[in-house]
Amino acid sequence: MDSAFLAQSVCLDDTTVKFEIWDTAGQERYHSLAPMYYRGAQAAIVVFDITKPDTFERAKAWVKELQRQASPNIVIALAGNKADLAEKRLVEYEEAQTYADDTGLLFMETSAKTAMNVNELFLAIAKKMPKTDTQNPTHAARHRGVNLQDPDAHSPRACCGGN
Fold first, then answer.
1. Which pairing describes strands 4-12 and 15-23: parallel, antiparallel, or unpaired?
2. How far apart are CA 83 and CA 60, in angstroms?
3. What are residue 144's phi and psi, to 5 degrees?
4. Per-residue b or e along 63-90, where b marks 16 or more CB atoms closer than 10 Å to that residue's CB
5. What is the pLDDT of residues 105-138, one digit of tens each?
6. What does the chain look like in DSSP terms, one character per residue?
7. How many CA atoms are closer than 13 Å to the CA of 153, on its beta-carbon side?
8. Closest by CA position to 132, among listed 15, 9, 5
9. What gap in Å lies between CA 159 and CA 11, rounded to an integer?
């Protein structure tokens, strides 16, 4: 599968939230393999291109699938990417925001090129995620991939030291 893996940490108050990110690029030929990526995930970001309305329609299909098949507590964020190309916009901000509101999603417009709202989106996701119950191993195992109880989180340097 053409996918990429990235680990990223975000500081939230006195806790470090560690994201383990699988980017599958949403390619249709790999659609049948997607559940192995989102099974057990605590969060998903569905990205569309604001200059291509067909990508917004595909994003809606992915959201529907995630809401039907993924963990019932999954946090789903919708990202309208390529905000740096706003002059070529074909998906209106209000349309995407209304859809996100109606389906219970976080929504932000982003730019991978300029990094606009990328960190903000991860921070918003982290704020919506429940803290992992470290006393309950079943719960902790079900929520693998993001550890909100990082043992280093008690150190201020570990949390907001630019990681």
1. antiparallel
2. 19
3. -65, 155
4. bebbeeebbeebbbbbbbbbbbeeeeee
5. 999 999 999 999 998 999 999 899 876 644 444 3
6. ---EEEEEEEEETTEEEEEEEEE-TT-GGGGGGTHHHHTT-SEEEEEEETT-HHHHHHHHHHHHHHHHHS-TT-EEEEEEE-GGGGGG--S-HHHHHHHHHHHT-EEEE--TTT-TTHHHHHHHHHHHSPPP-TT-HHHHHHTTT--SS-GGGGSHHHHHS--
7. 15
8. 15
9. 5
CATH number at residue 82: 3.40.50.300
CB 6 within 8 A of CB 23: yes
The reported pTM is 0.72
**Domain with 79 in it:** 4-160
pLDDT in tens, 130-162: 766 444 443 433 333 443 333 333 333 334 444
**Distance, CA of 60 to CA of 54 (rounded, Å):** 10
Which of 11, 8, 7, 15 has its CA nearest to residue 161? 11
The single residue listed with the structure tokens 């098949």 is 69
